[in-house]
Design goal:
- The chain has one domain: dinb family like domain (Four Helix Bundle (Hemerythrin (Met), subunit A), Up-down Bundle).
- Helices cover 52% and strands 2% of the residues.
- It has six helices and two strands.
- Strands 1-2 form a two-stranded antiparallel ribbon.
- β1 and β2 form a beta hairpin.
- α1 packs parallel to α6 and α3 runs parallel beside α5.
- The two termini are 28 Å apart.
- The model has no long low-confidence stretch (mean pLDDT 88).
Length: 186
């Protein structure tokens, strides 16, 4: 008998997939969106949804479960971290002072990811709020070449960085979820 979780999937058509293609809420059928900005938004939306799918159906203890020592990474920590970076991105495009940290300095987003339902609920609320605020701030700047903030970051660079950040952390989430219950991603 092993302590390792058994691999499993909801998929019936392709057993190595997370979910059957017809049931996947990420729209990948048909032509992609027209234009660079729409494409970036589409990728960002799908990675955000992928992260939520990786966390779906887990309780507070499972979400807060750490990967391997000395890492403090957990699925809950990733939710908190992404809320924090969404907030940071707004500071990048602002001429004012940076927004205060949500969770404190350094790795507080991961360190404070404890197995309490109130912490889980707050993480989801924080992430939704920060995503909406950053989306709204960037919606005012549809020109991808426009440079914003004190450092003159191009909107395009920020959008690509957002996609990259979520994509990287979805890879982490794949491994974290597999350690929790054996479920593998797609």
């Amino acid at each position: 008998m092993s302590d390792d979780p058994a691999r499993w999937t909801r998929a019936t058509v392709y057993p190595d997939m997370w979910i059957d293609p017809d049931d996947d809420p990420r729209d990948s059928e048909g032509p992609g969106p027209d234009g660079e900005l729409a494409t970036l938004h589409d990728y960002l939306t799908n990675y955000r949804l992928t992260l939520r799918m990786k966390c779906e159906g887990l309780d507070a203890e499972q979400l807060a479960r750490r990967s391997v020592p000395p890492s403090t990474m957990s699925l809950l920590g990733l939710l908190r971290h992404l809320a924090e970076v969404e907030r940071d991105w707004r500071s990048w495009i602002s001429d004012g002072d940076p927004l205060p940290k949500l969770y404190g300095e350094r790795d507080a987003d991961f360190d404070g990811a404890v197995a309490e339902q109130a912490v889980v609920d707050a993480a989801y609320t924080d992430l939704e709020r920060e995503q909406a605020a950053t989306d709204a701030a960037l919606a005012e700047h549809p020109d991808l070449g426009e440079r914003l903030g004190k450092d003159g970051i191009a909107v395009r660079e920020l959008m690509v960085h957002r996609v990259e950040e979520y994509a990287r952390h979805c890879g982490h989430a794949d491994l974290l979820r597999e350690c929790v219950d054996g479920r593998v991603g797609q």
